[in-house]
From TrEMBL:
EML-like second beta-propeller domain ranges (all copies): 393-662
Coiled coil: 688-769, 796-856, 897-987
Mapped WD repeat ranges: 396-418, 500-532, 629-662
Domain of life of the source: Eukaryota
Keywords attached to this entry: Coiled coil, Repeat, WD repeat
Keyword Repeat: yes
InterPro entries recorded: Beta-prop_EML-like_2nd (IPR055442), CFA-57 (IPR052993), WD40/YVTN_repeat-like_dom_sf (IPR015943), WD40_repeat_dom_sf (IPR036322), WD40_rpt (IPR001680)
Region called Disordered, residue ranges: 245-267, 1297-1319
UniProt name for this protein: EML-like second beta-propeller domain-containing protein
Length: 1319
């Protein structure tokens, strides 16, 4: 939205620099509807002299200058968010319409009838073609603009209404473009546009309420917030209910005051803790801002009488402890806006703050956040008093009237630090390193360490209400103004160095030489003095100025220290203690602050009207005209240029902080070389201070949090373990109960199956009986239809005759009316001709007389002509009225004639339809006659068999009684089965969920089986390896056993030979020969070489005892190997058995689950199939019985028709009774000629069932009668039975006739078999 006069970027070149707004912190909360959403992620709000388009996700900003709307009073967005309305106040209030997408102003609207100096509210109509604006005091004029044409459409002065208070809000109907609503103090009016006039309608009791805000919930409902914590709900213009906002922190509701006092409402003077200040609607309800820092969420109620109910409360921020006493720190919400997707809500407060929060879901059990967060940063709640920028860091410090000091990062556009003081701030200065800050308070000048999250006091200098202070460029000295004195303090030793004197008035501003060798001070007496900071002596003094309010110092391009001092519209350049040049500035208002950018040859000045003035510096390069840029609404309190001279920061009394970007220098700029030398070698201090105490406190806090977390984790694990145990126990119990219920249901389903089969058989028999009974009634129906047709034919003839007579009468009446009308017209025309002729003759006569007396009677002639024309006009008007009346009569007669013709055509169509029905009935009559003949033959045969069924009737009487009782029980069981089927369907859903859970468990078991298979494979490989080792050990053992046996045999032989040799001890020669033979036998032959080559032969040679020990060692090695092998085989067998057992159990479990699932699904399918079969059979029975159309499937039998059928059946039974009596009389006359009949021995059953017919109060239960008529019944018994049947049918018919208005046909007819014995 670029201004037509001033762009966002001011393309005025000043020594090679172009300035543009980069970022802005601030908002104007006093503007009505000060924040609105223009799209999903962008909000628009006024701040300074701009409209700021702020992205809520990336926090990027775009600016639109509203220089002509410098005093906006209200904002409004169109329904489709295409246009933005900005209302301007002042001497000539106006309304401007902006294109949101094109960023340009489309129309500038004003109304000459406005006597107020501002508009309080505005709104677009639904079609976005008109804008409604509500003017302020004293006349409260409501203006409706056609903004595309730039015209005023309608104007209404509300001040004409007696007792009217201040108007607070205006809104338009969401669908009707001609409906508006206005609310305020004792004001609640609805207006409707009618012929460019606004007229009141709807609720007229608005004088009983002090309304604050309003919003349309839908096209029927209007919500109005009041000053006593209530929301009025109006539907169709009438008050339906009043919703009270309730919360423990809100004070109790009081009586409605006669005047409204509060923030954001005309005439208000302070905050009200129960005032509803803002409303916004979303799809599920609405948000209501009531009281400080509180937003209440109301949800739509399903109850029509309740409308809305309070759901929960959101907090904007926490108030300070002294907030409820002094009011400082409270945030009364003035505007709410919701993004189009209803995801984010943004709130604006009267303290110039913006907060945002995601809109919580109404269905969420736990809300993610009940506390709003700042949209980007906490802003100043009042005006900015002083500001300073750091030389070596991208930081600017501001102090405001809200007693807060804020540190901003102007490169990353973030708020680094906020500190609140208990005293007012008068001045401040930041150290070049950005690690210290000095703040001038009411009683002292306080020096602080700037930590990463707070300020810590370093020292204090006893200076009251210090008007100015600043650090030296090196940061080792602080200069502060104490009245007309300047105090120098060392920042290293924190001791006072010098007290500089020379001014006779209050020092207003100070500055330093770039090398820190001298300090300059300017005072209100017009003197500017430079002091040597080493010796504290004055270097130079300038006294020719009237007064000095601001001072800016810098290093010029030629290396000399230069200063700019001034007052109001004149300022002077001083270099080396000498006045170089003086210049005046008359545009943009009084200059109150200035700052220099020597490298970029720029001077920036702030005025009392909020404009930023730019020109070149030194002044010999300056032009005669300044570049004026609107920056703030009120006076600019401080203008500072950053250390790298890349940005300008302006602060104003409106609480806004604006960062302006300066373009880079080009090669041809005068300061290009100086920028390379001075600005590229600046030191950087990227971090802030952190104290040891803070670190220790943070570490202790972290340890405490870790302990709490570990404790919570252990506690949670214990709770989870207990919950898991409880869950497993409840799961087992549920499984057992579920299995029992399933078994029980299986039994019930089997019983239902058996009952269904029995009912189907009974139903088939009943169907056959009903078919048989209805065949006898067809003849009577045919006769009645014949009578009805004859009656309809006669009625049709009468109607045709009557229609012809009416047609003739109508033609005759029309002809007579036309003839009479022509005669009357002719007579009236003749009379008119006569009158005209007579008047013409009189006129000629009068003309002749007038010609003779023209000079005397000119006035008489005019009078006669006028009277004549009047008489002629009267005659013509009377004749015309009569003609119109006659014409209307003719038109009425023609319309009646057309209606009669239409009725005649309809009757002809009805006659054709009746003829078709008659033809169909004739055909049906033929079929029925053939059927009747066949039935008569069957009746004759049955009559012969009646006498043979007397005994069967007596036997069946008992079964009939039991069957009736059984029918009642079956109906009850049927109802129970239906109810159980519904319960089964409801239980299928958790069963399906359980099946899904079991499927997941099966999947987990399969994964466990895969892991088990891997383990079993590894175990099998180990078993194979151990088996191979055991086999090898076995082979070795066998080899050792064989070797041991061989050695034992050889040893036995040797021992035997030695024993034999021992007998030759007394014969030396023989002993020698025996020894030689032993040597030759065992040693030289080499057969037992291994015997003595082994190392243990020495032990064997020592004696038989050692030999026995060696043999026992070899004997124990083999059993040990065998024992190990056996143990390994047993472990392998155990593992295999466990694996097989687990696999089998897993397969059985999976199989049982799948089988159970299959059975349940099959049973449900069978039940559904049976239900459909029963419904189909019921429809077939109703079709056969004539109660349902067999083609369309719709019911065609009403209650009256059912009663009529029963009455006809009673008549048929009476007729059959008479015929049977006649046949019995004939049979008695024939004697004993009757014998046993052997041709047919089947039973003839007549079942008369009176079912349960549902009524409006319930089910009307009728008595069920069944009768079986066997063959062979005697005449008296037959007569008695038929009489009983007739009586029963008559009683049933009478009962139904008395209740026919409540009888409806049953949707399902139960099939009962009377032959089935009772269980």
């Amino acid at each position: 939205m670029a201004n037509t006069n001033t762009n966002t970027t001011t393309n005025n070149k000043m020594g090679g620099g172009v300035i543009e707004a980069e970022y802005l912190w601030g908002v104007r909360g006093e503007v009505g509807g000060c924040v609105v959403h223009v799209d999903q992620n962008t909000v628009v709000y006024p701040a300074g002299a701009f409209l700021v388009l702020h992205n809520t996700t990336s926090h990027q900003q775009q600016f639109v200058s509203i220089a002509e709307e410098a005093m906006p009073t209200a904002l409004a967005i169109s329904p489709k968010r295409q246009y933005l309305c900005v209302c301007r106040g002042g001497e000539s209030p106006a309304v401007s319409v902006w294109d949101v997408e094109g960023r340009k102003r489309l129309r500038f609207l004003s109304c000459g009838e406005m006597t107020s100096d501002h508009y309080v509210s505005a709104a677009f109509t639904q079609d976005e073609k008109m804008v409604a604006a509500q003017g302020g005091a004293p006349d409260w004029t409501l203006v409706l603009f056609l903004w595309e044409k730039g015209k005023v459409f309608s104007v209404l002065r509300l001040s004409d209404t007696p007792g009217l208070g201040p108007v607070a809000s205006l809104t338009c109907h969401p669908e009707d473009n001609g409906v508006l609503s206005v609310v305020g103090e004792r004001v609640l009016k609805l207006f409707r546009l009618n012929d460019k006039l606004l007229k009141t309608w709807g609720y007229q009791g608005g004088h009983n309420y002090n309304s604050e805000c309003q919003v349309w919930a839908d096209q029927h409902t209007l919500l109005v917030g009041t000053d006593n914590g209530s929301v009025l709900v109006l539907e169709e213009g009438e008050l339906r209910t009043e919703l009270q906002v309730s919360h423990p922190q809100l004070p109790p509701s009081e009586k409605r005051a006669s005047s409204a006092k509060g923030v954001g409402v005309p005439g208000g003077s302070g905050p009200c803790h129960r005032r509803v200040t803002a409303l916004v609607v979303f799809s599920g309800g609405f948000l209501c801002a009531c009281g400080p820092d509180k937003i209440f969420v109301f949800q739509k109620s399903e109850d029509i009488n309740e409308h809305y109910f309070q759901r929960y409360m959101l907090r904007v921020c926490e108030a300070s402890p002294a907030a409820l006493v002094s009011g400082r720190g409270e945030h009364n919400i003035t505007a709410l806006t919701l993004c189009p997707a209803e995801k984010t809500v943004v709130a604006a407060t009267h303290t110039n703050q913006l907060f945002s929060n995601p809109l919580p879901s109404l269905d969420a059990a736990k809300l993610p956040s009940l506390m709003f967060s700042p949209l980007h940063a906490r802003l100043h709640e009042g005006g900015v008093v002083d500001a300073d920028t750091c030389l070596w860091k991208p930081v600017v410090v501001t102090g405001g009237t809200d007693r807060t000091l804020r540190v901003w990062d102007y490169q990353n556009h973030t708020l680094l630090l906020t500190h609140t003081f208990r005293e007012d701030i008068f001045s401040l200065a930041i150290h070049p390193t950005g690690l210290h800050v000095a703040v001038g308070l009411t009683d002292t000048l306080r020096l602080h360490h700037m930590l990463f999250d707070t300020l810590r006091v370093l020292s204090e200098v006893r200076i009251r209400r210090c008007s100015a202070c600043c650090y030296s460029p090196g940061g080792n000295t602080l200069a502060a103004a104490d009245g007309h004195l300047v105090i120098l303090t060392s920042t290293i030793t924190l001791k006072k160095l010098h007290t500089l004197k020379g001014h006779t008035a209050k020092v207003s501003d100070m500055g330093w030489y770039p090398d820190g060798s001298a300090v300059i001070g300017c005072a209100e007496d017009g003197t500017v003095i430079g002091w040597d900071t080493c010796h504290g002596q004055s270097l130079w003094q300038v006294n020719s100025l009237e007064s000095c309010k601001y001072l800016a110092a810098g290093l010029s391009l030629d290396g000399n220290a230069t200063q700019l001092v001034g007052h109001e519209g004149s300022f002077t350049e001083i270099t080396g203690g000498q006045m170089v040049q003086e210049m005046n500035c008359t545009s943009g208002g009084e200059v109150v602050s200035a700052s220099l950018s020597p490298v970029k040859t720029l001077v920036a000045m702030g005025t009392s009207t909020g404009h930023l003035l730019l020109n070149k510096f030194p002044l010999h390069m300056a032009t005669s005209t300044f570049t004026t840029i609107p920056a703030h609404v009120g006076p600019i309190s401080k203008v500072v240029v950053t250390g790298e001279e890349g940005r300008v920061v302006t602060c104003g009394r409106d609480g806004a902080v604006v960062v302006w970007r300066l373009a880079e220098l080009d090669d041809k700029s005068p300061g290009f070389l100086a920028a390379r030398e001075r600005l590229q070698d600046l030191p950087s201090v990227p971090e802030m201070l952190v104290s040891r105490e803070d670190l220790e406190r943070t570490r202790d806090r972290m340890e405490e949090l870790e302990r709490n977390v570990s404790y919570q984790v252990r506690d949670k694990e214990v709770h989870l373990g207990l919950q898991q145990q409880e869950f497993l126990a409840s799961k087992d119990a549920l499984l057992v109960r579920h299995q029992a219920e399933v078994d029980k249901l299986h039994q019930i389903i089997q019983e239902g199956e058996r009952e269904r089969e029995r009912l189907e058989a009974s139903h088939r028999d009943a169907l056959e009986q009903v078919n048989y009974e209805h065949q006898g009634v067809f003849a009577d129906h045919q006769q009645e239809l014949r009578k009805k047709l004859l009656y309809e034919y006669s009625k049709q003839d009468k109607l045709e005759t009557r229609l012809k007579e009416m047609q003739l009468n109508l033609d005759r009446q029309v002809a007579e009316a036309e003839h009479r009308t022509r005669e009357e017209l002719q007579q009236r025309l003749n009379q008119q001709d006569k009158v005209v002729t007579q008047l013409t003759a009189d006129l000629e006569k009068t003309t002749a007389e007038l010609e003779r007396e023209r000079t005397e009677g000119a006035e008489v002639l005019r009078l006669v002509e006028a009277s004549t024309e009047a008489e002629l006009g009267q005659v013509r008007s009377s004749l015309h009225a009569q003609l119109v009346e006659e014409h209307d009569n003719v038109i009425k007669l023609r319309s009646e004639r057309a209606a009669l013709r239409k009725n005649f055509v309809g009757m002809q169509r009805e006659c054709e339809q009746k003829e078709g029905e008659v033809r169909g009935l004739v055909e049906e009559r033929g079929r029925l006659q053939a059927t009747v003949k066949g039935l008569e033959r069957e009746v004759e045969a049955l009559r012969r068999e009646v006498n043979h069924r007397d005994d069967i009737i007596r036997e069946r009487e008992g079964s009939i009684t039991s069957s009736r009782e059984q029918v009642v029980e079956l109906e009850k069981q049927k109802f129970l089965l239906q109810h159980q089927m519904e319960l089964l369907r409801e239980e299928l859903h958790p069963l399906q969920a359980a099946l899904d859970l079991r499927a997941q468990q099966v999947k987990q078991l399969e994964e466990e089986m895969g892991e088990t298979r891997l383990v079993v494979g590894a175990r099998e490989r180990q078993v194979k390896e151990l088996s191979q080792k055991v086999a090898t050990a076995g082979k070795t053992g066998r080899h050792l056993e064989q070797r041991h046996h061989t050695l034992a045999t050889a040893l036995t032989r040797v021992l035997a030979d030695l024993a034999t040799t021992t007998h030759l001890l007394h014969h030396p020669k023989k002993l020698k020969d025996a020894v030689k033979s032993l040597n030759d036998k065992y040693i030289r032959s080499g057969r037992h070489k291994e015997f003595w080559t082994r190392p243990d032969l020495d032990k064997l040679a020592q004696g038989s005892s050692d030999l026995e020990v060696g043999v026992m060692g070899e004997d124990t090695a083999v059993p040990e190997l065998l024992r190990q092998r056996e143990m390994l085989e047993r472990s392998v067998a155990t593992l295999r058995a466990q694996s097989i057992k687990q696999t089998a159990a897993h397969k059985d479990r999976v199989t049982s689950l799948v089988k159970e699932n299959r059975e349940l699904v099959g049973r449900v399918g069978v039940l559904e199939e049976r239900v459909w079969q029963l419904e189909g059979q019921t429809r077939q029975l109703e079709s056969v019985a004539g109660l349902r159309d067999p083609y369309s499937g719709k019911r065609r039998a009403s209650r009256d028709h059912l009663v009529q059928q029963l009455a006809q059946q009673a008549d048929t039974i009476t007729r059959l009774t008479r015929q049977l009596r006649l046949a019995q009389t004939q049979k008695r006359g024939d004697g004993d000629s009757g014998g046993e009949m052997t041709t047919k021995e089947e039973e003839m059953k007549q079942v008369l069932v009176t079912e349960e017919y549902p009524t409006e109060e319930g089910l009307v239960k009728e008595k069920k009668e069944e009768m079986v008529m066997p063959l062979g019944m005697s005449g008296e018994d037959n007569t008695t039975t038929i009489t009983a049947i007739t009586t029963t049918m008559t009683v049933t018919t009478t009962t139904l006739s008395s209740k026919h208005q409540h009888i409806t046909l049953p949707s399902r007819l139960p099939a009962l078999d009377p032959r089935t014995p009772p269980q």
